[in-house]
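Researcher: Let's run the pair from yesterday's discussion. Sequence first, then tokens, for each.
Model: Starting with the first of the pair.
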Amino acid sequence: MTIDLHAHSTASDGTTPPAALPRLAAEAGLTVLALTDHDTFAGLAAASAASDIELVAGVEISCRLDDAEVHLLGLFVDPGHASLAAELELIRTDRARRAVRMVERCRELGAPITLSQVREIAAGAPLGRPHIAAALAAVGITDAFTSDWIADGGRADVPKHVLSTVDAIALVRAAGGVAVLAHPRSVKRRASVSDTQLAGLASAGLAGVEADHPEQPPEVRTRLREVATDLGLLTTGSSDFHGDRKPVRLGEHTTSPEVLAALRSHRS
């Protein structure tokens, strides 16, 4: 088995249609793929209908840990679970409000972008910062994720509705799934999840951490495995595939069959 537990489609901020992902995954040699679009299950039906590999129902939830944003993978979840579906809907609708206001702020700061451009880039997907960043890049602003523009706390940033990570873990578990913290020490993110914070999340029901990830160098992966072992957490690996939006291939990092089996056993 070759297993990738983190991938995105055009249902959120990827560039590959959901129905095309299983074929690409099979061509990459994968036998198991988790579709984990941001705060939505919208791509699951199309991906499942086209799948000739095992497709894991998943979602990547944007949430808050102390003063920082982190991302939580919910794997093997029930997409129809009412409380989880309602919370994801609230996150998505607030994201659209936020995106509109961020475009307005960018324009106020002198960037000649429009909401229609951002919507065209999103191509029907829920509006998000990557779409705004692409619009900014099209007018020559290639450093969008900085304090000058749309990074967290940046001049064009807008606060958003967000769950606490502990509450997100509880929702994933209530929906029959398992919770894995995505890229907790990515070199591309402002905040790094500390050992102490991981211990607190483990006590709250976290099942695992994503250790092998393209944005985490080898020494970080090694340390995450050490901490996970001490805390009784599983360690996963994945590509965090976004199609053409990131220079990452499906299956660039993978999860062992033993860990996949252990994740299944953690299901509520």
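Model: Moving on to the second of the pair.
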Amino acid sequence: MAIVNVQDANFAETIKSGVVLADFWAPWCGPCKMIAPVLEELSQKLGESVTIAKINVDDNPETAGQYGVMSIPTLKLFKDGQDVGTFVGFRPLADLEALIQPHL
């Protein structure tokens, strides 16, 4: 799984095909810092089958607003551009895998 940084300008293109886990975060957010190593582990475990798209809500308010992100971290799962699942707040690796696996 690749981890990529995305912005408002390329978010739609990033999520339009395949399975993408979007991480809406900010550098000042404590739980966002806690989930970062979990996302790294998930990336290593699932390989190229999923892309993790990190989007800083402070720098990209348009996309965060479009998807109704009110709290961070918010993790949204997309399959071929369709929103298929959401977690708000810190989640352990097993929860993230359970969200993703049915869509692979």
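Researcher: Give me one sentence on the second I can quote.
Model: The domain at 2-99 is CATH 3.40.30.10 (Glutaredoxin).
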